[in-house]
Give the backbone structure.
Amino acid sequence: MNDTSETPKLSWWRRLSNGLKRTSSSLGTAVADLVTKRKLDRAMLDEIEDVLLRADLGTAVSVRIADAVGAGRYDKAISADEVKDVVATEVERVLAPVAKPLEVDKAKKPFVILVVGVNGSGKTTTIGKLSQKFASEGRKVMLAAGDTFRAAAIEQLKVWGERTRTPVIAGAQGSDSASLAFNALTAAKEQNIDVLLIDTAGRLQNKAELMNELEKVVRVIRKVDATAPHAVLLVLDATVGQNALSQVEAFHRTAGVTGLVMTKLDGTARGGILVALAEKFKLPVHFIGVGEGVDDLAPFTARDFAKAIAGIES
Ligand SMILES: Nc1nc2c(ncn2[C@@H]2O[C@H](COP(=O)(O)OP(=O)(O)OP(=O)(O)O)[C@@H](O)[C@H]2O)c(=O)[nH]1
Ligand SMILES: [Mg+2]
């Protein structure tokens, strides 16, 4: 292995697998622990299925993994590593079709990214991280403080703007977020911006009034550019577990979500929910967050994630 070229990848792998430790110990490692010093039988497979269900993987995937563990192995001893391999292979199979990079279409000027999600899911932080990423790729980025509810939200985005040397369009607290989005997109067009990231206020998916407001933001953006927003990113907090399913449904219906970002995978045992989401909705997963720092966001790759939650070292 070539040390110099592998270092960044290895360090990211280490952060990913460390970040996902709590998930992997409730998932791959927990399953592997069940099989030691026993011969495989139906009872063991039922226990495996239960562990996977508790790790938020969802019924279909849990049953499939337990079946794959059992296939051809009845009455035989099975090693922990073998089980982890089966878990990783089955999980990767579900995740591979959704692991898609966020493609910024250069023909769209600006490429408009609307960021949505429930309260505290990590929207503003993700925008800060993305701002850094796009700027480091040499793109002209602009941020729009579409969360006009809280003064602190506007300030928080301005801090990210300064940190990443990116202009921020903000209005007064309490102003209309749709008109803020309109103004920001107009300004971005005038200034030849490549990527416009629009922050929005957190809203619970079952609050109709707030969801209608989000619909209005999308409608108003289209008045400036009929093809925008070009990406609608739903930011999901991995720690919420099963509730993420209804978040995806509601935000997809209201705002036409084009891709997912899952944050806080470092603080949870419930990272398996990403597998259940992939199985159910098949929406692209673009990025995952494993920390609060600007570098703690990475493109989502199925194989690495599958190995990390299966608890495979290396
Ligand atoms: N550990 C960890 N913390 C994160 C991650 N992403 C965001 N956070 C933290 O989660 C908290 C909420 O993040 P915000 O970005 O403010 O969330 P938001 O969705 O904009 O919140 P509202 O605007 O209130 O809806 C902050 O303390 C962030 O630092 C992550 O990947 N890992
Ligand atoms: Mg915010």
In short: Residues 123-124, 147, 153, 199 surround magnesium ion (ligand 2) (CB under 6 Å). The longest helix spans residues 3-19. The beta strands are 111-116, 141-144, 168-169, 195-198, 231-237, 259-263, 285-289, 297-299.
